């Protein structure tokens, strides 16, 4: 289709979209922002700075655990070294504070906004209800995803065992042909091969479910974090007030760094392929900067105080809160702190893990002062 034909349709679509997000707007949200602080040119410059700062902070946060795992080698990747035990505990605290302090609070603010007065959204605790449903759905997805990955790993292990058995049989037949008169010597050698293979298969079966679990945890965790990152990016991008943007640049940079660190640690535990690891890290790093860029492009017609925008953001924040609270409590904190590995660890490491957990939660919660 020619551009001069497409352009009118695209223009009409943008006008309809603008009307939908600004329809039935109210003045409550804008009443607290003084016109003396509205400067579109200065706000745009700060948004460019925010994109660069948040991109660097998020990339650095998610890269540190991944680079650390590769630097220390495969033993550290399993969480056996003290450094990675403490890092994972710190990351769990960050994720828990993100869900409870940041996302849940933002969702409740959206649903209790004065623009939604005389609406069912203010008369019912939708934030907690949606978070609850999101947690239950995450439980189902967690279970089904783990079953799926474990089934794939069992199939791969069975195929590898069949191939190995076939190769050993062919090698034994070839050896029989070369040493036709040495059957007594050949028998124990073949039995020894089979016994060694049995041990190898048992180790794979034992290690498989743990890795499958970590794969599911890392993917669900990224889903919860990214959905929130889009919202905070859009919120900053549509703002035309330098007074609002300035404190957010530093706060969101630290916010993304801590979240990236937590996500990177979980990705490193999953031991994914290099390409999958790179894509997950890149997707997280660019999400908030992309949201800022999209918000800046929509700033001329997007009204964040319209009832529809408030409801959409409230629902997404509630879902993200439910996902991350579940992930933090069940897959990160309970799995590590109530497991056999932690109980059999030295008392010094146990105390350090609890300190790291509290530090991560407090550090992330304190950012709520500026965000």
Describe the structure using short key phrases:
0% strand; mainly alpha; 13 helices; 371 residues
Structure summarized in a few sentences:
This protein has 371 residues and is an all-alpha fold.
What do you see in this structure?
The structure is a single chain. This protein is an all-alpha fold and 371 residues long. The chain has one domain. Helix content is 84%, strand content 0%. It contains 13 helices and no strands. α5 (82-111) crosses α9, α5 (82-111) packs antiparallel against α11 and α9 (242-270) runs antiparallel to α10. The longest helix has 56 residues, at 183-238. Residues 1-10, 17-24, 29-34, 74-80 and 188-209 have low confidence and may be disordered.
SSE order and pairing:
Blueprint: H1 3-22, H2 28-31, H3 40-72, H4 74-77, H5 82-111, H6 120-123, H7 126-178, H8 183-238, H9 242-270, H10 274-298, H11 307-337, H12 340-343, H13 347-366
Helix pairs in contact: 3-9, 3-10, 5-7, 5-9, 5-11, 5-13, 7-8, 7-11, 8-9, 8-10, 8-11, 9-10
C-alpha end-to-end distance: 45 Å
Proportion of residues in helical segments = over 70%
Q: How many separate domains?
A: 1
Estimated radius of gyration:
27 Å
Instruction: Give start-end ranges of low-pLDDT stretches.
Output: 1-10, 17-24, 29-34, 74-80, 188-209
GO molecular function: zinc ion transmembrane transporter activity
Family: Belongs to the ZIP transporter (TC 2.A.5) family.
Main location: membrane
InterPro entries: ZIP, Zn/Fe_permease_fun/pln
